[in-house]
Every structure is written in structure tokens, then in C-alpha cells.
Amino acid sequence: MEAATTIKQMIAGNKIFVPSYQRAYSWETETEKNKSPKQTNVFLSDLDDYNKSSTKTPYYFGHFLFEQKEKTVFGVIDGQQRLTTIVIFLSALFTRLKLIRPLTEDENESFEDIIKQNSNYRFATVDYDNQLFKDYVIEQTKKDKNGLETESAKRIVQAFDFFTLFLADKDENYLSNMLSAIRSASCTTHPVSDESEAIQMFIFQNNRGKKPSNLEIIKAQFMFNVHLYGGEEKESLIDEIKNRFEKIYKSISSIEYRIDEDDVLVYTLRVHFNSLWEANAIDKINKLLSESDPIPFIKSFTRSLAISFEHLTTFFGKDERENIEIHSLVTLGGISVAIPFIIKAYKFGLPTNEICKLCTALESIVLRHRLVGTKAYIESRIGEDYAKFTEQANSIQPIIDRIEFIKSITEWWWAYWNNNEFEKSIQGGMNHSTAKYLLWKYENFLESQGKNGYTPMRYDRIIEPELEHIAPQTENPESGYAEYDEEFKQQYIDCLGNYLLLSKSHNCSVGNNPFTDKRSSYNHLAQQREIHDMTSENKVWTKELITQRKHKIITEFILKTF
Fold this sequence. Notes:
Blueprint: E1 4-6, H1 7-11, E2 15-17, H2 39-52, E3 60-70, E4 73-78, H3 80-100, H4 105-114, E5 116-117, E6 120-121, E7 123-124, H5 127-138, H6 151-167, H7 172-183, E8 186-192, H8 195-204, H9 214-229, H10 234-255, H11 261-272, H12 281-289, H13 295-322, H14 324-332, H15 339-347, H16 352-372, H17 378-388, H18 397-408, H19 419-425, H20 432-448, E9 465-469, H21 486-491, E10 499-503, H22 504-510, H23 515-521, H24 526-534, H25 543-561
């Protein structure tokens, strides 16, 4: 493999694969034209601009770093996102060209050099996505989108579909020019046979695609330190780290839209060192790696990382789907203080019903902390109980008791989140996502009244939920609302009594309409029917009714629930 080469020459005759301990396909595709382009869109627009230009300078695809496994077998260490995208795009391009006419001898040679010759696939992505990659992108025998178990698999499909749609109306001349531009595009390569050299280069090399995450940097540092200090254990330790990160990246591909991988790195530090105050993962880990023998820490912390991702995959996956208490905490969001407790609960083998109780207690304090808005640290009030929550004393009851204590105590150091402060915080306007969350919970409260065995409605069953102002923010002259005086605008428009949960389409349809028009459409959810009942005699939405409804939501539901 030459240092300065072309894309065709780099791939031709070789087998290039993405090692499974590396990140899977992470480039995203934006399909809506009014939104900011993602990495795949930029890749295509850059190529398209080059293809339309009159320049004679070859297109440049950047630098690729490889670990050479055999004479013609290379694992891509840096540049896998670009290389995967190139292969996806070329497969779509060859397919479109074949629909117009048979490939020329030169084009067929390029196909065999870059894509596939007989049963010899030139490029392979990570193991757990590779069959999908072959079936959907290369062979195109899979036409449906069923069974896409990872986010990386979904991205592969999205990218291929995006390129296919883009090329669908392109003529033979355009396709031929684009193929010529790509196969002759220049790039630089650095293949190494020493894995430690490849890892070291990755640590210091500036990545042109997505910036490496802290987790990726830590993985590379761990492997490099094992190469330096692993001694007789080196090979087995490297294999162990690779195996653990293969599982970690598979977990990430399943839950990455639910939680950030670098946040999980911090949460794992808090579990590993049993402290809620761990914050800067890079600094902490670098300090530990600088000690005389970093190997024991590398072994134990890599295992802790794998365990965290394994448990969070269950938490955000199967358990969140099957347990409303977990779904409720996840829906609330902003639960960074809660996650270390959750990881511990799974790690200690607590039954699901106990984890659900823990989620409900944590949900209460997270919500209070958010709404009260104090600068006081909740971590300092529950940190001691967190530290005492160990495998030997794995009862969640002390944590639940502490949270109940915080909710009722009046002593100043503890009283920031007590019932009085909480009630004050929910009188006026609030963040719309929090208001939607509360109204979803309120909807289940209303629906459950007098119904034994009621199954709560999940938040994700509401189609694009939005927050409706019953009395609109902008006055309608033919309103059916109270007079829009200063008091009404300052104290009544933005409060729980005037908020209503609607689907996006419903909210758009009612807009700034008169109250009678809105009222006639309020017939889907229990809280909408509640408005009907409150205005059955006088179809005017008044200050008194807003106050009455706000008082009911707060006293009968929120204060008794949270």
C-alpha cells in the first residue's frame, strides 16, 4: 500500500475491514432540506461540487491509517467512516449505471477492485453490521428495513437510500464522471504492522470526520499502555480490551440516541470510585495511567465500562419498554444524577420491581431540583447515601428514605427542595418539555380515576406532543377568553392551569382560534374533556377557571405524586 495513492489503488487487491473493537458506522444523513446537513450530506455535496467544476486536480479523500494483519489484509484504524461512505456511495453509483447500460470493461474492473470480485468482498464493516452491509448495500438482496438492530445499521441503510435517491435521475455522463473522480481521487495511507504504533498515531492524529469521543481516546490510551507495560500478559490483555470494546460499541449503537457515550464514561467513574463528584474523565484517567503500574486499573475499569454499557442497554431497552416507572424517568430526561444509582442497582442484581421503586424516588428529586432551580448541589445531599449503597448493603430503602426526608425537612441546608419550595416553583410558567411531561403524567392520573388495573399510557404513544396555551399567547379579538389585561398576561397565560397537551397536528389546527372552536376539538384526552366539563355552563375561559384548574393539578396530582 503506497503512502500517496488513489482510492482505487488503495483498495484494489486488498481486504480492508473495520475491527470490531472500533466504532461502527456513525455518519448521519439528513433527509429534510430545511435542516442542517449531516456528515453524509456534506460528503455528497463536496463530491457533487467537484464533479461540476472544471478543475483538473484530483479530489482528495484524506489520510487513512491501517494496521496490516497479513500481506493484503488491513484493519482500518482511522478513516473508517470516510471509507465506509465511499463504498456505500460507489455501490449505489454502480447500481444506477447498470440500470442505464452494461458496465464497460474498465468500469467492471473498478467494480471488482473496489466493491467485489466473485465472492471476495473488498471492504467489511464491523462484524455485527457486516451481513446487513453485504445484503443491503453490496448484493442488494435485502429490500426491507426489518431487523435493523443497531443504530449503525440504520445509518448504513439511510446513507445507501440517500445516495440511491440522489443518483436516480442522473444521466450516464454524470455517473461516469463521478465514478472517474472517485476512483482516481487521491489519498494518503500509513499502514503499520505494530499495533501500538497505530494506536499511538490515532491518539495524536487530527481526525477529519467526527472528532474522537473521550471514550475512543481512553480506549486507545488503554491499549497503548498495555503495549508498553503489559509484559507477559500483553497479548491476552489486548484481546480482552478489544472484546470488551466490541460489546461496548454494539451497546452504543443500540442506545446512543438515549444517552451520550462520554456521559457513560463519567457515570462509570462515579460507580467505579463510588463517588458522585467524579467529573473530568480524561484528567482522572490520565492521572491513574501515569502511576507506576496502570495495568490493574486498566483491567478493572475496562470491565466496569463494559458492565455499565451492558446494564444501560437493558435499562434503556427492554426494561424501559416494559416498565412505566423506568419509562417515566427516561421521559423526564436530565437524569445524570440518577444514572450512577441505576447502574449500581443493576450491578448488584436488584430485581426489576426494586429498580422501578428507585426510579420513582429519583424521578421525584430530579424534577424538584429542575423546577426549584437552586444552585445548591443535590449531589452533596445524597452523595453519602450513594456511597453507602454497596453490594454488601444493597437495599434502596435508605436512598428512598433520604429523598422523602429532603422533600419534607425545613432545615435550611436540606430545605431547597422541600414541599413548600416545590409548590412555589410550579405556580408560574416553566420549561415546555417539563410542562409536557407533567401533563402526560396528569393525563394518566385523570384516566386512572375509578379504574382498577388501569394501564398508564406511554408518552411515546402521543404523536409529536406539543404544549398548547388554551388562552393563546396572542389575543384573539373574538376570543371567548378573559380580558387580556396586564395581570392576565403576566400571571395566567403561562401557568399549568392554561397549559394543555396536544399532538402537533392538533395544536397547529387550533392555533389562535376562539375558545369555542378550540373547545369543540378538545375531545381526545381526559384533560381535554376536563376543559369541556369546566366550561359546560359558560363557554368562556376565565381567570377563575385557570386558577381552579392549576390548583387541582398542583394539589390533587403533583404534590401527592412527586
